[in-house]
Specification:
The complex is a heterotrimer. By secondary structure, chain A is mostly helical. Helix content of chain A is 75%, strand content 3%. Chain A has eleven helices and two strands, in the order ααααββααααααα. A two-stranded antiparallel sheet of chain A has the order 1-2. In chain A, helix 1 packs across helix 9, helix 2 packs across helix 9 and helix 3 packs antiparallel against helix 8. Chain B has one domain. Helices cover 79% and strands 1% of the residues of chain B. Chain B is built from 17 helices and two strands. In chain B, helix 4 packs parallel to helix 6. Chain B starts with 5 loop residues before the first helix and ends with a helix. Chain C has two domains: 203 residues, Response regulator (Rossmann fold), CATH 3.40.50.2300; 151 residues, Response regulator (Rossmann fold, 3-Layer(aba) Sandwich). Classes of the chains: A mainly alpha, B mainly alpha, C alpha/beta. Chains A and B meet through helix 3, helix 4, helix 9 and helix 11 of A and helix 6, helix 12 and helix 14 of B.
Chain lengths: 288, 322, 400
Amino acid sequence: MDILVTGTVLGGTYALIALGLTLQYGVARIMNLANGENLVLACFCAFWLYTAASINPILGILIIAPAAFALNWAIYVFAMKPLVDRAKNRGQLEIDSILATFGLMFIMQGVMLLVFGGQYFSYNFLSEPVRILGENYGLNRIVSLGAATLIAIALYVFLYRTRFGTAVRAVSVSPQSASLVAIDVPRMSAFAFALGGGLTAAGGSLLSTYYTFNSSMGVIFTMKALIIVIMGGVGDVRGAVLAALLLGLAETAVASLIDPGLTLAATYTLFILVLLFRPQGIFGRQTA
Amino acid sequence: MSLMNEKEQRIAAIALMLFGAAAMIPFADDGYYLSLCVNIVMYAVLCTAWTLFSGPTHYISLATAAFFGIGTYSVGLGIDTLPFPLLVAIAAVASGVLAGLVGVATLRLSGVYFVIFTLGLAELVRQVVTWLQVKFLGSVGLYVFTDMTEKHIFWMLLALAAVVYITGWLVNRSRLGFALRIIGNDETVARHVGIDVARAKVILFMISGAFIGITGAILAPRFAYVEPPSAFNPVISFQVVIMALLGGTGRLWAPLLGVIPFTILFDRISASFPNHTSLLIGVAFMAIVYFLPRGVMGLIDDFRARHAKSRHAAAGVPEAAE
Amino acid sequence: MERRTLIKTFAASLLASAVLAGPAMAEGTIKIGASAPKTGPLAGGAAVTYWPAVQLWVNDVNERGGIDVGGEKMKVELIEYDDRTSNEEAIKNIQRMATVDKVDFIIPPYGTGINLATAPLIAKYGYPHIAVTAVADGIEGFTERWPNSFWTLGTSEAMASSLVDVLTKMREAGQINEKVAVVNVADAFGIELANTGKPKLKEAGFDIVYETSYPLQQQDFAPIISGAKDAGPDTFIAFSYPGDTFGLTKQATITDLPVKAYYVGVATAFPAFAQANGAAANGVMGVGGVNAASEAYQDFAKREVEVTGVAPDYWASPVQYASLEVLEQAITKAGSLDKAAVIEALGSETFETIMGEWKFEDNIIKKFWTVGQWQDGVFHGIASTGVGGEFEPIVKSGWN
């Protein structure tokens, strides 16, 4: 029971890390290796808002997410768009975007190092315990699980129940066909990339309430996010959430029942199993 | 197989001369420039081995660190009991076998899954190795004390580079190479003409992995102390992909065009701006992606198209830069 | 026109650099090279422990007018490189400092692995190698292999057994019972501590009721803390690294882990630990420690904040600074920049440092801090191998 709750809470954290990337990769077709840096940057901003201006990190999302949205829009328009325009096929874009976002990752890391230095940062917010089924859990983790649920539901409603969201999904399925039915593909892609960035930043400000972070830590988050995105099926919100939960539960179960030294092994075993039996992702279409 | 034609003979002669010249480097300097050259040859071997597989198949493998680490560990574990050459052979076999297993499991899948899986593979292997060491050896650090110095490592790497190039050349001429070119152009066509696509890819991945493992084994004595974070450093995987892509993957020697200038460029940056290394490497990177869309190789191809006469001069560029 | 100016500038800068690199050293500056991580996994630790201490020392020496070398005051010029936490970069940096920059002395890198990877090279060029942030068993073997190497921070063996001594005393005083939980990070230092600590605990009559190891960069510790809690120990020991030290403690606070002695590893001595944990930090024990009440340490801490803006830790920062004081005094005692003479002086002389009086015995500092504890916002040393000035340990009473 304990494992179920802990695993779900961890899954919520993973969902926050991965939801943004699934949009960026699925719709805008940019495999953003700077995703983790984006997240860590948001951690720093939340930290700074909280310590310097005593703005509550949850309210801070209202500032951080729009700012990240704007920043990522700019990144897409100025840095990624030229690559999209010049790429002849998806493979070429994949290679170019890996190279470009790898550079971006270094730039963001460099800027954070200059501004914040290399030390570890951490602060206390909502770290009082809550009792669930006889066990204590950090309130900040429960809050972020709640936020992850809210964000995932909102995103689902937006993508599957609104016209605009349907257009975004259409681009993710096939940019060529989407442009045939009068969808402005470049604008949709920019929007999806920016929205993804905003979501990642929102996740970052929530994570900062219970993770210890420093400027060079982004790559850990990027790795986790990539695995979740691929497991869930690229661009599929439901899949990403399910994959995040599955990973959270599997890691907690392995750590509690077998050995904490084998959590990564569990992650990859799960990853291979998903790939072997559902290579298109958990909810992916067979033709993908 | 026919004998080498005239053009190939000329290339072979030039290559032989360049290798000879490179082998003299330790006599000129055995300090900083030798260390820089060791790094260059190391990345040249890694990138070329990487391109052997990823060039024709268009699969981006981020598993370099896994094979490299296994090579390093083979030496670290056995240095006290077995002779070094045997350990290098074990490293080759071990990483080759791992590549085979990974290949069988994932190469049937489309490219993206392969990228992510290989990205995690190094982490996975590192965790399993650490876990095994903790459980059964009771420590994770291994000492590799030998009498080898930078110049011995340099010569071994150079010899390995020669073997990699010859292997690459032989593969290109063989049925396997031909099959791979067809696969790279169109996998469906390849399947229709009766090529066992999966088998061809797995074999090539194994060859590539084995060479990377040998590189790791050769470098183990350089670091004296082998521990999982340095042996399975994921940065190696990324640097290899990036340098190879920057050079170009179309030809066997193209990665060299990425390795030499960029090792030197990154070295200059980190020497001159120690506090802004990340930032400047990032900026340099973005600039390269935008201004050299097809790598250095693409630049040379453009140049050649314009000056069709200077065909052989371009082939001499890489080693001359040293 | 443009091209000509470019060539001229280039030629001028070439000439300038040739002049600078040449006999300029005789002008009375000592070139000292430092290579350590500014980026990569170890950057977080180096940013607290290594770089600020180095900067402060250079600043202090130059403010005093320089190092006294045979009667002449020579200023210090620092050449820094980022090794990106990578062995290849570190080796290249050492080579560059030795053969291109031709520095007079080298401040060894940060971290056990990189210190060992670069030791053969530093020895080859004959530089003194005063290692600080390198803790491993088998140091005696290293000093034999590299007689130019000096080791200052202690051994993991002493740190683990010292902890067991502290706990044994607490048990004998009736403050804790014999049940302990021991976890460790599956990396060099964590494993060495656990390998020494666990048998010593058993020998001392403790009962290990929960034990496990976890991988580097683990972020979630709920399963470990609840596993330990279920076993009901009075003492919780984690031989941990920075990220996990923070993570474990936060989780222990939330779970309200009911222990009377709580010990975590590297980074417990960081000022950020107290910031991150607030009142919960009180009574937390950790590896390291320093005589925090001493005037020398307090003065050092104050100046480091003033000069670099970074607060030092309560363990390796002052030792890093002391290692540089030792280098400075050895140069003065040798009366020259001759590396062999400085090594000779290092091995035989006695030095005055902010850590007290230092004398290398067989190239090793044998008196060092082993365990510290947060008491009212300060991390006091509570055990050492004979340094003196230890505080009494207190019982951990709750997490608020």
